[in-house]
Backbone:
C-alpha cells in the first residue's frame, strides 16, 4: 500500500484501515472539533454560570436543553463531515438509452470533455452515467468531482455538495443557537436579591466578573473569559456563514457559482442565474427535493420560458 492510502488489502476482498489513516487531517479535525465542543460546554457548567445555578437548584430543563442542542450540533457536524457530498460516479455501469422526449429537452450546445484530474467524462449538459453533470466541479482536496459543488470546508474536511448542503445549513443554524446561548451564559451577570449592582454584589454574580484584583480575576474567570472570546469569534463566523448560505439557497446558487460566475461556461454566457425559480420553489427544491429533475432539465425549462416571453 502507498503511504497516502487509507486502506490496504489483507486478503481476497478484505481490507483494513492503515495505521497512518488515524493521523489523517480528517480524523484530527473532527477529533479537535469534538474535544473543543465538549471542553467549552464543560467550562460553562463548572464555572459559576446560570447553567450551574440551574443545576444546583434542580431546574434541569434548561441545562438538558442546552446539552441536547450541543449534542445535536455535534451529530450534524459529523453527518456533514462524513457523508458523501454527492460524488460523481466514475465506475462504468450499464445505462439505458435516454428517452426521446428527455433528450429533446436538454440543450446539446456544449461538447463532451474530460476532467483533467479524475478523467471523468465531462459534459456541462448531459444525463448519461460517467459524465459530469451540470453544476458539478472537481475538488482537488477530495480528488473527486462533486455534484452541485458549493465549496470544500476545511473545518469539515469534506466537500459541501448536493447531498449534504441542506444538512450543512441546518448545522450552521443549530451551531449558531448554541454559540449565542453560550455567549449569554458566559457574560450574563445576575445579582442576588438586595445585592444591587455595585462592586460588592459582583462577587455573587454568575458569569464573568471584572471588579476583582488581576490575580484573583485571572484564577477565577480567566478560563471563562477565554471561552467567551472563542464563542464570540465562532458566533461571528457561524452567523456570517449562515446568512450567506441562506442568501445563496434563496437564489438557488452556490458559493462556487457566486464567486466564479465569470469562469463557468453555463453562467458567463447569461446575464442572470438560469436556476433561480423564485424564493418558494428554490427553498422547496433545496430542502425537500421538489420539484425533482436534473439541473439540465430545469435550465432548459427556464430558457424555454424566456424564449416564449421574448416572442410575445
Residues:
Amino acid at each position: 500500500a502507498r503511504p497516502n492510502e487509507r486502506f490496504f488489502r489483507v486478503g481476497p476482498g478484505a481490507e483494513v484501515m492503515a495505521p497512518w489513516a488515524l493521523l489523517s487531517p480528517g480524523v484530527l479535525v473532527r477529533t479537535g472539533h469534538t474535544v473543543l465542543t465538549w471542553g467549552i460546554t464543560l467550562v460553562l457548567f463548572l464555572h459559576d454560570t446560570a447553567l450551574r445555578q440551574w443545576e444546583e437548584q434542580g431546574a434541569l430543563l434548561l441545562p438538558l436543553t442546552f446539552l441536547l442542542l450541543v449534542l445535536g450540533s455535534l451529530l450534524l457536524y459529523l453527518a456533514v463531515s462524513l457523508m458523501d457530498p454527492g460524488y460523481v460516479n466514475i465506475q462504468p455501469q450499464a445505462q439505458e438509452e435516454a428517452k426521446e422526449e428527455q433528450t429533446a429537452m436538454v440543450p446539446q450546445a456544449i461538447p463532451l470533455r474530460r476532467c483533467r484530474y479524475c478523467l471523468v467524462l465531462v459534459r456541462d449538459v448531459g444525463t448519461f452515467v460517467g459524465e459530469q453533470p451540470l453544476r458539478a466541479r472537481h475538488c482537488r482536496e477530495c480528488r473527486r468531482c462533486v455534484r452541485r459543488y458549493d465549496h470544500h470546508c476545511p473545518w469539515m474536511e469534506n466537500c459541501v455538495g448536493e447531498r449534504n448542503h441542506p444538512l450543512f445549513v441546518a448545522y450552521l443554524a443549530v451551531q449558531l443557537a448554541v454559540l449565542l446561548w453560550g455567549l449569554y451564559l458566559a457574560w450574563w451577570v445576575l445579582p442576588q436579591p438586595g445585592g444591587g449592582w455595585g462592586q460588592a454584589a459582583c462577587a455573587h454574580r454568575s458569569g464573568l466578573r471584572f471588579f476583582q484584583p488581576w490575580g484573583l480575576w485571572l484564577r477565577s474567570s480567566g478560563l471563562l473569559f477565554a471561552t467567551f472570546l472563542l464563542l464570540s469569534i465562532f458566533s461571528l463566523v457561524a452567523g456570517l456563514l449562515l446568512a450567506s448560505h441562506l442568501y445563496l439557497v434563496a437564489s438557488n446558487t452556490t458559493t462556487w457559482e457566486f464567486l466564479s460566475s465569470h469562469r463557468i461556461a453555463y453562467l458567463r454566457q447569461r446575464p442572470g442565474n438560469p436556476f433561480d425559480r423564485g424564493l418558494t420553489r428554490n427553498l422547496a427544491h433545496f430542502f425537500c427535493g421538489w420539484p425533482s429533475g436534473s439541473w439540465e432539465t430545469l435550465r432548459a425549462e427556464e430558457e424555454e420560458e424566456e424564449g416564449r416571453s421574448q416572442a410575445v
Notes: Residues 214-250 form the longest helix (37 residues). The first strand starts at residue 7 and ends at 11. The CA atoms of residues 274 and 302 lie 7 Å apart.
